[in-house]
Design goal:
- The chain has 400 residues and is of the alpha/beta class.
- It folds into 2 domains: 214 residues, CDP-glycerol glycerophosphotransferase, N-terminal domain (Rossmann fold), CATH 3.40.50.11820; 174 residues, 3-Layer(aba) Sandwich (Rossmann fold), CATH 3.40.50.
- Helices cover 35% and strands 16% of the residues.
- It has a 7-stranded parallel β-sheet with strand order 3-2-1-4-5-6-7, sandwiched between helices. It has a 6-stranded parallel β-sheet with strand order 12-11-8-13-14-15. A two-stranded antiparallel ribbon has the order 9-10.
- α2 packs across α15.
- It is globular, with a radius of gyration of 22 Å.
- The termini are far apart.
Length: 400
């Protein structure tokens, strides 16, 4: 019953928005931010907001964040008005704001006026194929949504038509985004990712303070284990993940020098049982936590098919790829943009013992990482936010 009530309310709000949005005036001094469909205060929109509140050119602007369950989360966002995602206020500010700064695909019901500026920051350099680059048979459907290929492509096409600009973090994305998103290359701005400025300018005092706040031991190195979700492992409520890491074995190999932070992907809904034998060695992070907060405190990264390694590589620290299900993943799911056997900035491990032995011995090819960064992180110099904001400011002045 509750599900039907929510659907009716959804339709009423969307219908009212279609009727009224044209009559709501645009405020040239209001900017709306949305990250991951209102999941929180994070990613490129957060980095740009933090830069904008320090930029005197925007001192008279109002900054608005749309966040789900914002009152319950009790977020403290400086210099910002926080509104509820998918509320009447949300639709009002979609129509009222001069600029939208968003890192995710907006739904088709969102309406944009010609005078508004939509900056799509996106949220990562992809290893797995995206949008139009995903090759599907005519009768194929996506596992969980059951959406067919043409319907999926259309959701991207509708949103891309609304973009004024889309950030490209590097030369690689500038090459593949026109194919994946069918976007006019003129709309791409190769600036680097604002969220990564912090990784190019690591502050040791900030790192130390983070470790203290998280109650982590200061005399141990930190391994960040960040696996991604699998397209074909899901239930009605979301994606599930079968953990294939024997953390007791990790402890046997590594406990003398390391601790482990285990951070599941935010789309993973199942929880993982705590093991008292691992207390003080394994620290489970909330799946909804912004993983970017963990990069600079981690001395090395273990991942699989997640695109987190593109950002982490900026730190010039070891990256290990634990791909125990490589054949299944490559054949059954989306496929890769890279030749993972030659292009990744670290070695692939199929067996847990060999992975742990390499970490223990600190085996890693830093020269290969340097080559990787020269192409995939060619714009990461700590000034991406400035480049993006300068482009926005020119657009505002040009349109005035």
């Amino acid at each position: 019953m509750m599900k039907w009530i929510k659907k009716i309310i959804h339709r009423i709000i969307v219908t009212l928005n279609r009727l009224l949005y044209r009559w709501i005036p645009i405020d040239d001094y209001t900017i709306l931010f949305i990250a991951f469909h209102g999941r929180g205060y994070s990613d490129n929109p957060k980095a740009l907001h933090q830069y904008l509140i320090q930029d005197q050119r925007f001192k008279d602007y109002q900054f608005v964040w749309a966040i789900k369950n914002h009152k319950k989360k009790q977020l403290n966002i400086p210099n910002a008005k926080v509104i509820e995602y998918f509320s009447f206020s949300y639709f009002y500010y979609l129509a009222h704001s001069k600029i939208w700064i968003v890192n995710c695909k907006l739904p088709g019901y969102v309406l944009k006026k010609e005078q508004q500026i939509y900056l799509q920051t996106w949220h990562g350099t992809p290893l797995k194929k995206l949008a139009h680059d995903i090759e599907l048979n005519e009768d194929a459907t996506f596992y969980r949504s059951q959406m067919d290929a043409q319907s999926m492509y259309k959701t991207y096409d509708v949103d891309v038509k609304r973009y004024n600009y889309m950030i490209s973090p590097n030369a690689f994305c500038t090459k593949i985004f026109p194919s994946a998103f069918r976007i006019d290359p003129e709309k791409l701005i190769e600036t680097g990712y604002p969220r990564n400025d912090i990784l190019s300018l690591v502050d040791k005092n900030r790192v130390l303070e983070k470790k203290k706040q998280m109650h982590l031991p200061l005399d141990k190195k930190i391994i960040l284990y960040a696996p991604t979700w699998r397209d074909n492992s899901y239930v009605a409520a979301g994606y599930t993940f079968e953990l294939k890491a024997n953390f007791r074995k990790w402890k046997e190999y590594l406990q003398e020098d390391y601790i482990v932070l285990f951070k599941p992907h935010y789309l993973i809904i199942n929880s993982f049982k705590e093991d008292q034998e691992l207390k003080g060695f394994l620290y489970s992070m909330d799946a909804t936590m912004d993983i970017a907060q963990l990069y600079e405190i981690a001395d090395c990264l273990v991942t699989d098919y997640s695109s987190v390694f593109f950002d982490y590589a900026i730190l010039n620290r070891p990256i290990y790829f634990y791909m125990y299900d490589l054949e299944e993943y490559a054949q059954d799911l989306r496929g890769f943009y890279l030749d993972i056997h030659t292009d990744l900035p670290g070695k692939i491990y199929r067996e847990e013992d060999s992975l742990l032995a390499s970490i223990q011995k600190q085996e890693f090819d830093f020269e290969h990482l340097k080559e990787f960064n020269s192409y995939f992180n060619n714009k990461e110099d700590g000034h991406a936010s400035k480049r993006v904001v300068d482009i926005l400011y020119k657009e505002i002045c040009h349109g005035a």
